[in-house]
Every structure is written in structure tokens, then in C-alpha cells.
Recover the amino acids of this structure.
């Protein structure tokens, strides 16, 4: 029995070797592999167009050449010319800006300020460029002597008051001049108390009057004026231009 098994194995090996050699053909055992492979050659399309990249005996291509892409985008040529400054592209350098200043007429009564504003607006270059800052001047009362009939009479009375040690000053309000103020107060009540003290010092003809009522004041400002515009403002304001001052 062992001999029969050996004979079967030998026959199987012989058949396998004959099939690998192609001797059995297609006799029910499938296509035998062949080094010639005629069936593959029959399936080729336009075999004459095939080209071997590395034919037998040729040296292998360098790694960097083989890995290089078929076409490389050309690099842009380097520009050695330094870039021009941004302001040069815009044209010639601009001239320095002309200096400007702010000018004002401060603490004017409202009626006077409005008149001067209208005068300045007659110049088209200044029209609408004024700004107003409002303020209120508090009322004021004084212990008053006057009116005196003349400036000489006022000076004689001043000498008497200085000799008695009583402080005084001249009143510049047109309705009360020539006259003297023996004290200035923010309320009428304070002025009446001071009047009693003056009367005890022997000044019998003094009285309390309001030197100034509550007054609304306006400051007129013309910002950002060039030297030429400032000259035009002076011409438009006339004599009042003497009060122009630089804004703080």
C-alpha cells in the first residue's frame, strides 16, 4: 500500500511538471503559463508606440531627474530695481500746511456780540465760521456816593474819605458817573448791611444802588484762521478788532 501511495505522488509530480512546461496545452487543465505569452501579445493595442524608459544596459536615471515634474513653471525674473516710495508715486511732495490759529473776542454783551458776528459774516471767507460761548455775569450792588456835579467835586470828596480811612473807588458806569463806590457786593442784602456800617462812620449821604444787572455775555471764536483770513477778520470788525486775542 505504501508503494502505491509513492507511485501516485510521483505521477502527480510528473503531471504538474508537464503542465508547467506547457506540454499538456489546454487539455482541461487551464492555460499553462508561458514565457512567450502569445495571448497577451494579441491583446496589445499599437505595441509599436511603446517605449522603454530604462532599456536593458542603460544607466538608471538620477533620482532628482526622475522625480522632477514634466514641466516646471518658469520663475518670475527678480526685480533688482528698488520699489519707489508711496508718496513718490502720488506725485511731487506736498507743500507744508499753512499754519492756522484760533482768534476770539471774549466776554461781550449779547447785543454787541451779535452785531460783530454779523459784521464778520459780510466776508464770504468768514461766513458761518464763528462759534459762540455763552456766560452769565452775576448782578452787583454798591454802597454809592454821587452823582457829583463835577470831577473836581468828586476828587474833594475822595480826599475826605481817605482821611477818614474809608475805602472807595470811582464808578465807571455811565448812569452813575461821576460817582464813588464805598463797597461792592453780590447781593442787595449784603450791600444794605454795609451801608449801616458806613453811616455809623459819619457818611450820611450814601445809598445802595445796583451797579450791574445780570448780564448774558458771549465769547466769539473764529478757529483755524490763516494769516490772510485773520487780516480779513480784522478788516470786517473794524475798531472792535483791537480786542481780538489768541484762543487759550
Amino acid at each position: 500500500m505504501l508503494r502505491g501511495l509513492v507511485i501516485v505522488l510521483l505521477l502527480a509530480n510528473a503531471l504538474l511538471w508537464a503542465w508547467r512546461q506547457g506540454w499538456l496545452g489546454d487539455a482541461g487543465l487551464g492555460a499553462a503559463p508561458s514565457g512567450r505569452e502569445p495571448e497577451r501579445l494579441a491583446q496589445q493595442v499599437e505595441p509599436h508606440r511603446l517605449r522603454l524608459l530604462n532599456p536593458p544596459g542603460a544607466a538608471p536615471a538620477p533620482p532628482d531627474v526622475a522625480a522632477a515634474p514634466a514641466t516646471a513653471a518658469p520663475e518670475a525674473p527678480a526685480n533688482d530695481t528698488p520699489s519707489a516710495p508711496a508718496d513718490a508715486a502720488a506725485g511731487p511732495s506736498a507743500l507744508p500746511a499753512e499754519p492756522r490759529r484760533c482768534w476770539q473776542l471774549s466776554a461781550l454783551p449779547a447785543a454787541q456780540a451779535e452785531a460783530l458776528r454779523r459784521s464778520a459774516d459780510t466776508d464770504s471767507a468768514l461766513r458761518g465760521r464763528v462759534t459762540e460761548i455763552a456766560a452769565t455775569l452775576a448782578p452787583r450792588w454798591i454802597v454809592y456816593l454821587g452823582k457829583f456835579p463835577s470831577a473836581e467835586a468828586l476828587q474833594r470828596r475822595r480826599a475826605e474819605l481817605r482821611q477818614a480811612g474809608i475805602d472807595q473807588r470811582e464808578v465807571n458806569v455811565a448812569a452813575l458817573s461821576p460817582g464813588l463806590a464805598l463797597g461792592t457786593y453780590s447781593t442787595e442784602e449784603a450791600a444794605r448791611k454795609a451801608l449801616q456800617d458806613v453811616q455809623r462812620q459819619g457818611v450820611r449821604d450814601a445809598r445802595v444802588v445796583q451797579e450791574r444787572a445780570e448780564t448774558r455775555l458771549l465769547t466769539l471764536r473764529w478757529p483755524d484762521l490763516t494769516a490772510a483770513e485773520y487780516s480779513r477778520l480784522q478788516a470786517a470788525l473794524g475798531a472792535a478788532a483791537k480786542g481780538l486775542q489768541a484762543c487759550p
About this structure: The first helix runs from residue 2 to 20.
